[in-house]
Amino acid sequence: MKKNVVLSVVAVLISVTGAFALDRDTIKSYQNQVQSLQSDFKAAQSEQQSLLKTKDLLSEMAATDKSESAKLKAAEAEFTSDVASYKADRSAADSALRAFQSEIDVLKGQRENSKAEIDAFNSRHAQHDSWKPDPYNHSAVSAYNAEADRLDAEAAALNARKASLDADKNRLLAEAAELDRNSGVLEQRRKALIDREKALKTKESDLEWARKQMSEQTLKWAEETKRNNARLNDIAAQLNALLTKIARSSSKCTNISGVGTLDLQNLNGASEQALGCLQQLWDGASRKSKKRIAPVPQAQMQ
Predict the structure, then answer these.
(1) 260: alpha, beta or left, given left = phi > 0 and alpha = psi -120 to 50?
(2) Pick from 142, 149, 143: which is nearest to 125 by CA?
(3) Cα–Cα distance measured from residue 60 to residue 210, given in angstroms and rounded to the nearest whole number
(4) CA 26/CA 245 separation, integer angstroms
(5) pLDDT tens digit string along 197-254?
(6) Which of the 8 DSSP states describes residue 251?
(7) At CA 133, angle to CA 131 and CA 137, rounded to 5?
(8) Rounded Cα distance, 36 and 24, in Å
(9) How far is CA 159 from CA 13, 106, 132, 146, 154, in A?
(10) Considering Cα of 104, then 105, then 107, then 112, what sign does the dihedral take?
(11) Which residues lie below 8 Å from residue 103, measured CB to CB, with a gap of 6+?
(12) Which pTM does this prediction carry?
């Protein structure tokens, strides 16, 4: 009879307390922990999305750097070609100037010789004109006229020579004007090349600075990504442990999906299931559940 009484007491205890193994304080604690971890997980996911956007931005920066580097390389190749072309034209212009100077020197000597010849001719011509032969001296008249004819022929030759030298002078003056024009064009090209070289160096410096910034940002992104991934994995591990504990605490929570093996893809879903389960336990549990022994009828104690 005493054995039956003990069994009855155990049965009553099970019927009163077995359905609610967790009290409200414990349930509330579990809810707060799940919600806190869930909040931390969502914050880490938000940070992950931000880091992915940063990754895309870094990829765009890398693509821009590659494009701008290619443009700079092409511009530098074109600049090098233009410099070589300028140097060739400058060398040709210098050769032309030397040849021109040589012609000037030759013409100068020729004009000095021509002037000396003309001066000598004018002296002889003046001397010839200063003396008149006796008109009755036929021999003297013939000699005088012969000298006059020779002087006229020499004057014609000297005038032709002077005209040729003047033509050479005019040609060289035209060449000098062309050389001056070409020199001006070459000077403009030289200044333009200097400006382009400065611009290319500035562009190269800007690209180098941008690469340095991109490198620093990439390192920072990698460190933050590593840290955030570790944070996500830590939260996942804590949630796995907590949800496993909750599932083992009540038969009502055994249906939480993937308990103990949750990954980053299904943590939110499992957390919501756990919160739903805990809410059901909360709604069914009493605030202060005390174990009570049901009174045994007097007849059974005899």
Answers:
(1) left
(2) 149
(3) 12
(4) 12
(5) 999 999 999 999 999 999 999 999 999 999 999 999 898 888 888 888 888 887 778 7
(6) G
(7) 165
(8) 18
(9) 149, 19, 25, 20, 8
(10) positive
(11) 168, 172, 175
(12) 0.65
Tens of pLDDT, residue by residue over 9-20, are: 323 333 333 334
Type and span of the H or E element at 119: helix 24-129
Q: Which amino acid is present at 75?
A: A
Q: Which two tokens stand for residue 61?
A: 């920066």
Residue type, 113: N
In whole angstroms, give the CA distance from residue 206 to residue 224: 27
HSE-up (13 A, CA, CB side) for residue 230: 6
Lookup result for tokens 């069914």: 284
**Of the candidates 28, 34, 23, 32, which has an alpha carbon nearest to the alpha carbon of residue 272?**
34
CB 235 within 8 A of CB 41: yes
3-state secondary structure of 291: coil
- Indicate the residue type of 127: Q
Give the dihedral sign, CA 231/233/236/237: negative
CA dist., res. 280 & res. 20, Å (int): 11
- For the record, the structure tokens of 25 come out as 């304080």
Angle between helices 138-249 and 24-129 (to 10 degrees): 180
